[in-house]
Amino acid sequence: MEKQSDLLLDIQHLHTAYRLQGNFYDAADDINLTLKRDEILAIVGESGSGKSTIASSIIGLYDHKNTRVTGDILYNELNLVGLNESLFNKIRGNNIGMIFQDPLASLNPLMKVGDQVAETLYYHTDMNEKQRVTRVIELFNQVGMPRPEEMYNMYPHELSGGLRQRVVIAMAIACKPEIIIADEPTTALDVTIQAQILDLLESIQKESHSGIILITHDLGVVAETADEVAVMYAGQIVEKADVKTIFEHPLHPYTRSLLNSMPQSDDEDEELHVIQGTVPSLKNMPRTGDRFAARIPWIPASAHEDEPKVHEVEPGHFVRCTCWQEFHFLDDDSNKEVVKNK
Ligand SMILES: Nc1ncnc2c1ncn2[C@@H]1O[C@H](COP(=O)(O)OP(=O)(O)OP(=O)(O)O)[C@@H](O)[C@H]1O
Fold first, then answer.
1. Which residue in 229, 267, 275, 326 has the most C-beta neighbors within 10 A?
2. 342 is a domain residue
3. Protein residue with least CA distance to atom 14, ligand 1
4. For the whole prediction, is pTM greater than 0.90?
């Protein structure tokens, strides 16, 4: 049986709405998710599907005047929804580490990278200066920075993108957080460096027994690293299962379309299925019916539930709506485009 303490985060009925011209619109709509110790949970979906909205709701980094967060985000006994800022400041960095897409934006250009990591330790631990420097060198070693002592005194612009992201990761894990949220941590990096950073995240997770939420639009990244996967479309989770099930037995038409659009080879002329259309903007989001229906118009309206519910089709495998039962790809090439596979 699962130990109570294995559950790190329990997100229930999370709604995050942004104010646009006076009205609030849900960008995350009734999100239910759990994160366990020793688990990498990937949240995957196209741009605009609401992935980063979930991340910012968890860590409480949003414009409180124009963002409304309701529901529960339970971290142990604590509900992070509505938590006061001084408590949040203690939890951020200490219990929950954050890695963003663009390491340059996360770092202060005018400060030595070693001092930036040491600063996190200054705020969250009672280490003295010497201990902090020692710990930073240890962290730089852990994240695979060559010549850590030398690196300590460098400025962000003197480092490559991959090394900068290692600094950000060192900062995120400095206080051994139980939870790490990585929002597109490899998107800004070269392909070869991407794999190294993913390997690093995995080894950190194994060593520290933390839980990682990995936000990505890249199913290749998911296949390589995730244990559990939540597929998001237009603010909602449309499918959730373990990684093997998502790749070997996907059901929701959106998950199947995403998988179908993945390159199968390195051939630049490979024909890729492109999902026609885009995620609707917040204001244009249909608030009733199946939000994905518009992108699979060849599936009859009767296949969709009027108010799609999430069904547990097998233990641990959740799918929104029953339309998957009638879903098929088009036989002709009308939803297929030749796009450069790079
Ligand atoms: N602060 C904000 N104010 C208003 N609308 C916002 C705000 N942040 C995000 N949105 C909108 O909310 C929706 C979800 O955005 P979000 O960034 O969470 O998606 P995402 O899946 O992370 O996409 P991306 O990968 O492009 O960041 C989008 O329609 C976006 O335009």
1. 229
2. no
3. 50
4. yes
